Amino acid sequence: MTRRVVLLLGSVSGLCCGASSSMSTKLDPALAAMLDDPQAEADREVVVMVGLAQQATEQTLAELKARRISVRSVLGDVLTATAMLGRIGEIAAHPAIVKIEASTPLHPETPPPPGG
Fold first, then answer.
1. pLDDT at residue 103, rounded to an integer
2. pLDDT at 106 over 80
């Protein structure tokens, strides 16, 4: 069974994870933690926002697709996509990618009142 995790754009900070240093600087802390989890499932589908070095081109999108990332939307140098957790390292290694940011579901701070 494939599980889906929804990830939203966050800020990138310096981090240390089990991946190479160039890849770790491209990943936000939540995504890096997911990769460092020894119990993480490689076939777990994640939704990510990807920052590119420049506006997305057809060639860049084709190269990313070859790395098995499923692009959902593109706006200039940012795209949203889904990918298997086990492929994030390969995707992050693409030279056009400057960051891959994880999301967290947005929840209201307080629950709505009953009936509302």
1. 73
2. no
